[in-house]
Amino acid sequence: NELTFPGQCLGSCRDFRAASGTYLYLGKIFASQKGQVKRVIADDGAEELSVCPAAVPKDEAMSDSDAATTTEDELVPRVGDIVFGRITKVEERSARVDILSIGDAPLKQAHFTGMIFKENVRRYDRDNLQMHKCFIPNDVVQ
Fold it and tell me: What is the average pLDDT value for the chain, to the nearest integer?
């Protein structure tokens, strides 16, 4: 089992099927979280790639007061989570977002950064989309 980090390319969707802890982008499978890569043969015979979350070291573990208000699952955004974030930088093909909350749980500090790619802003006329006309720094997005 190999350790992987968010955004690390794990393989091609031609060779594997994306599973838990991964996402597809431009025909490749990427890790969406830090953890161990697992390869599993599915019932239909396809080889799946998933990422199981890495254990939190004791020196990074939450205090009891933090544990009372936040669960470990809320600390890391996962595929499918609804997050709120603030746009920090807008480029020609993407916008960078500091994640402010995951679901209903606000983060004390923006520890996570996300990207909104031009291809994900709308489904039509993507070639003519201008990111700086869609987003400006300090916009709050969901």
Answer: 80
